[in-house]
Amino acid sequence: MTEQKRILIINRGEIATRIAKAIRELKHIAVGVWTDNEPHATHLEYCHEWVRLSGKTNAETYLNVPNIVKLIKEYKIDAVHPGYGFLSENTEFAEQIEKLGVVFIGPNSRAVRLMGDKAISKQCAKEAGIPVVPGSIGAINTIDEAIKIAKDIKYPVLLKAVHGGGGRGMRICHNDQDVKNNFEAVGREAKAAFNNGELLVEKFIVNPHHIEVQILADKRGNVFHFFERECSIQRRNQKIIEEAPSPFIGEDEALRKKVCETAVMLARAVGYDSAGTVEMIMGEDKSFYFLEMNTRIQVEHPITEEITGIDLIVCMIQSAFGEDLGIPSQEWIKRTGHAIECRICAEDPITMLPAPGEVQAFETIFPQGTRFDHCLYRGLKVTPDFDPMVGKLVTKGLIRSVALRKMRAALDGLLLEGLKTNIPLHKIILNDERFVKGNYTTGFINENKPNAKVNVDVDYQKIYRILAGIEARKMGV
Predict the structure, then answer these.
(1) Nearest-angstrom CA–CA distance, 84 and 64
(2) Per DSSP, which regions of 107-169 are E strands?
(3) Where are the beta strands (DSSP E) in 346-449?
(4) Do 400 and 247 meet the contact criterion of CB atoms below 8 Å apart?
């Protein structure tokens, strides 16, 4: 074991809590940050030390590299874990950390740079012999160029940001006029979100499945995969339900092996040395193509942990310090059971738009086999400053139907007052025949419109009655 290190967590919410727990397990010192608009954040109670990251906006705090560097020097920090979002895939930040002689708990900055640019990552994948979605290799500069490529690869196509993620900077185009109408708008959206307005044109795969492979590599040349996740339930190109393994791949172990080994090939090709995710798009004929690589831990990593028994955050920290991961071979990693994750977001379940509010009461009545990573507490104010996700509800069963049954029970037992959430939407989706059969694609929400079936009033009346009963019992009534 390496000597005790001081690890700064440059993040908030449930992922900061998750990281702090892993740091404690490894007997290092977890240093958390608090900001002026979130001085009582839940992750702080899991940290050994708290330091102030001055400012209120994200630009002033979690994205303020000079201030973070100042904290690193002032508090004699040995390593930094960025979590996901914020600076987790920022090449300049990773490079600055390395220059300070501080360990960046993530991949080396070269891998971040190669995979952070969608055009470059696509070229790397192509050179490594990995199938890529037909389309432009590099960024395109004009509408005419975009239309020419679109005609060559045939409509529909996807206009998407070279630098991007989270479903932003992306539009489907079915003809030349769509390209003309969307080109500048997508560029502006990309510029606003990622400070880079460059675009790619890619073939839009009809009835696609979003399949991703969890990989983990160390600094000793070892690269492992931890099987795949199905992430096809999305709204606005953002995932809200994930499961592992993929019900679409199902019992096709030859396909599963091919997909997972392809992800390992890419990781090796770019000298990867941390936890990461290789994302694929899979057509209805089960052909698959490389989409992108996320050079960080993913929101949905818990379902992989549940089916493999591997703590990915702990391994990520060990890898950063050059330690042995304790994994003798790929064959040693086994898959058991099925896990499902529902992202609990403070948003209107009908419009699926963020709905800020304050948590007035919070209780959980969960079945066995439930995991809830969250940042909730009574009095929590959910504001537009951060992503609306407030928790990740995970259930595991020996088979998929059991995991589904447990998730339905867990959603019924997650009781929140004062905050509008997407829990009613999750309930509709989990009872939909297509979802139950595992026969769904990324178009599920647009095609089935489960949000139109939500009856919010009835659902919330039930919650209020249950919460009132719990409070009454606490008072001895």
Answers:
(1) 16
(2) 157-161
(3) 357-358, 361-364, 370-374, 381-382, 389-397, 414-417
(4) yes
Percent share of the chain, pLDDT over 70? 95
Residues 6+ away with beta carbon under 8 Å from 375: 12, 13, 14, 17, 41, 42, 43, 390, 391
Tokens of 85: 């979002």
CA distance 414 to 424: 11
143 plus 91 within the same structural domain? no
Above 70 in pLDDT, residue 166? no
6: left (phi over 0), alpha (psi -120 to 50) or beta: beta
- Domains contained in the chain, number: 4
368 and 395 Cβ atoms separated by less than 8 Å = no
Position 317 confidence tier, pLDDT thresholds 50, 70, 90: very high
At which of 203, 234, 261 does a domain end?
203
Residue 129 lies in a domain: no
pLDDT at 236: 87
Residue 344 has pLDDT above 60, yes or no: yes
Looking at 296, 335, 371, 408, which residue is catalytic? 296
Residue range(s) defining the domain that contains residue 153: 134-203
What torsion do the CA atoms of 362, 367, 371, 372 make, to the nearest 10 degrees?
A: -10
pTM of the model: 0.87
Q: Answer yes or no: is pLDDT of 97 > 60.
A: yes
463, pLDDT greater than 80: no
CATH number of the domain residue 29 falls in:
3.40.50.20
Q: Report the interhelical angle of 301-308 vs 312-320 (nearest 10°).
A: 100
Spatial separation of the C-alpha atoms in residues 102 and 337, rounded to whole Å: 39
**Is 296 one of the catalytic residues?**
yes
Q: Identify whether 156 is preceded by a cis peptide bond (ω within 30 of 0).
A: yes
Residues 6+ away with beta carbon under 8 Å from 404 = 340, 397, 430, 436
- Same domain membership, residue 261 and residue 220: yes
CA distance 279 to 213: 6
